[in-house]
Amino acid sequence: MTDLTKLSLKETRDGLRAKQFSAVEVTSSYLGAIDQANESLNAYICVEGEGAKKQARISDEKLASGNGGALE
Q: Environment class of residue 24 by beta-carbon count within 10 Å: exposed (0-12), middle (13-18) or buried (19+)?
């Protein structure tokens, strides 16, 4: 599978709509990238991973029901 953190916003949106991957998968990819890079960068003070995954699940539900927003 493609590294989801390397996709443009348009590619991500199109992939979500085409069900090539889920918002949870995109979110998990970004959280993994943050975990991997933050040890050396120390760029993030607080990462709300569980909250981000919860919002991703909500986005997936909206997409599945046909009620996704412009960025979902």
A: middle
Contact 12/68 with Cβ under 8 angstroms?
Answer: no
Q: Cα Rg for the chain, rounded, in angstroms?
A: 13
Q: With contact defined as beta carbons under 8 Å apart, do 72 and 65 qualify?
A: no
Residues 6+ apart with CB under 8 A from 34: 44, 47
Q: How far apart are CA 3 and CA 1, in angstroms?
A: 7
* Domain map (residue ranges) of the chain: 7-64
Q: What is the full per-residue pLDDT of the chain (72 aa) written as tens digits?
A: 689 999 999 999 999 999 999 999 999 999 999 999 998 999 999 999 999 999 999 999 999 999 988 877
Global pTM value:
0.89
User: 47 with 27: CB under 8 angstroms?
Assistant: no
